[in-house]
Each structure stands twice: as C-alpha cells, then as structure tokens.
Amino acid sequence: MRLAVVGLGFMGVTHVKAIRASQKAQLAAVVSSDEKKLAGDFSDVGGNLDTTSQRIDLTGVAKYRALEEALADPSIEAFDLCLPTHLHAPQAIAALRAGKHVLIEKPLALNGEECATILQESKRANRIAMCAQVLRFFPMYSVLAPGPALSARFRRRCAAPAWGAWLKDKSKSGGGVFDLLIHDVDMMLHLFGEPKSVTATGYENLKAGIDLIEAKFDYGKFAVSVSGGWHPGAYPFSMEYTVVRDEGAYEYRFGDGDPVFYGMGAEPRKLSRPGEIDGYRAQIDYFAECISAGVAPDFCPLAESANAVKWTLAMEEARWKRA
Q: What is the spatial distance between Cα 288 and Cα 125, in angstroms, rounded to a whole number?
C-alpha cells in the first residue's frame, strides 16, 4: 500500500517511522507547509512519548505542500491524516471523494455530526476509513480481552502539550480531556461495550494548561472509572489501568514494563507478548491488510471511533453538570 502522511508534527513523524518499519505499507509521500520538515529535519518536533527523530531520510518520498496536490497523485492509494482535530473531517472527506482510503488520527472528529459525515462518505466512496485509536494495538493493552468485569479503572495524565498551540484552542482540539482521554474511553467501549450513563467532576483552564476530570461510567453490575487530563507544570506523562475480573486482576503502569496478572492462589504473572510489534506499526499493518483484503476494519471499526467521540463529549458534559 502506497501511503501519504499529511501533517508532520509529533504524531505525523511517529506515523512516518511506523510506516517505514512496516512490511505492508510504503511511505509514498509526505504533505506539509513546513520546508524544514519536508527536508527531513524534525529537530523542532517534540511530544509526550519518545517516538520522534531529529532527522529522517526522505529520499525517494514525494513532497507536497498541500493536500490537494497530493490527492492528484494517482500512485497514492491511501492518506494518513495527522492534523489538528478540526481538520480531520474536511480533509478526510476530501480524500474519500478523491477515491482514496484514509487513516484518521484520533479523535475521529470534534462532534457527532462530523463523525456521521465521515462514515457516510466512506460508504458512498466505497473506500476504507479507519480512526487511529492506537491504544487497541498497544501490546500492554491488547492483553485485555473484551468481556464483563467486576470493576475497571483507566488513568492518563500529562502536562499540557508544548508542541502544538492549537491544542489549547478548544475549537480546534476539543480540549485536553477530550484529546487525551478519548484513548481510554475508546478502550472502555472496546472491552465492555455501551455504558448506561456517565457522571463526572473536574476543572478546566486551558490557558493555564489545566484540564482535569474524574468520571464514572455505569454498566449496571459494575462501573468503569476514567480519570486524568492536563496537570500543572512539567508534569510527567503516565498511563495505567486496573481491570478486575472473576479470574483475577490485570494491572499496568507506564514505566513498569509488562502488565501483571494477579490470579487467585497464584504468583503474580507478567503478561508479556513475545513477538508483539510496536502499536503504531501494528496499526499501520492492520490498516494496510484491510485495504488489501477490501474489507472494512472489524477490530477498530469507524462506527466505534465515532461512539468514542460521543461518550467522551458526554463525559465532559457531565463534568459541567456537577460544576
């Protein structure tokens, strides 16, 4: 699959590296208005995970300054959109109408109306569209299988991102809680399905780099807690989960290595996955496999990514009801 990456910020560079490591996708082109990045110099790119590079050799890779130029290239089969969230819907729709497959960085869009339009255009164009909800592909999260639980807790925290001013503009990013915790809401929906309701408390001051939430999703017989957001100062990135089931407890904390399973009457057991590849590469490989087979993604369906937007927005709305 010949793939073009649109946007060369933190996530765009992360996707470029994943594509170059893939045996199922080829980096055909990059799209950016930044000449320095088009030359392969990413020294100004940073993020909350060590996934970027100072320089990447882009020899043989086509360079375009605008999406419209790249869409006119008949050799490009698919587009990987790593852009500010408010551009996801219009750029995805343009690519689908041009007959291209699209991988859309999370969140799928800013609201339900935009998500619905992307779904409709994908069906109309008969092209594969997938949202890059990469947590489903991370080895430390893929050890969790869908099914009921006794309780579950997901946390994700960091300082306000310093690599993109657009993230502090809620009209472009949806805000810190929306952009960050949609990972965990999507994982919750993947594992447990649709909740009955959500309640939440929290605080938001995007200009100060603070956006916090403590949410509880009601599943009837159990509840799922989702919490975190942007913290003050140079707060370090962290993510974690605890899922308790009849057979035992599953625990993961960023920086501690493999997840651990605590079973009844047994020693704690690390849940390593020998041969498991990087989540970003696994995501690219899966997208390429879907295109090659001509089938819509069933492991990461577009409709479920739209549902993650719906419930993350509902979580935020519940926070303000308690304010």
A: 18
- Beta carbons of 308 and 186 less than 8 angstroms apart: yes
Give SS3 for 244.
Answer: strand
Place of tokens 């807790």: 153
Three-state DSSP at 161 gives coil
The whole-angstrom separation of Cα 271 and Cα 6 is: 35
For the residues of 125-146, what is the DSSP string, one character each?
HT--EEEE-GGGG-HHHHTSPS
CA neighbours closer than 13 Å in the CB half-sphere of residue 139: 14
* Whole-model pTM over 0.90: yes
In 3-state terms, what secondary structure has residue 262?
strand
CA distance 197 to 183: 18
Which residue in 300, 79, 297 sits closest to 183, CA to CA?
300
Instruction: Provide the residue-wise pLDDT of the chain in tens; the chain has 323 residues.
Output: 999 999 999 999 999 999 999 999 999 999 999 999 999 998 878 665 555 567 899 999 999 999 999 999 999 999 999 999 999 999 999 999 999 999 999 999 999 999 999 999 999 999 999 999 999 999 999 999 999 999 999 999 999 988 778 999 999 999 999 999 999 999 999 999 999 999 999 999 999 999 999 999 999 999 999 999 999 999 999 999 999 999 999 999 999 999 999 998 889 999 987 777 899 999 999 999 999 999 999 999 999 999 999 999 999 999 987 65
- Could you give the angle at the alpha carbon of 211 between the alpha carbons of 208 and 221, nearest 5°? 170
Token pair recorded at residue 267: 């020693």
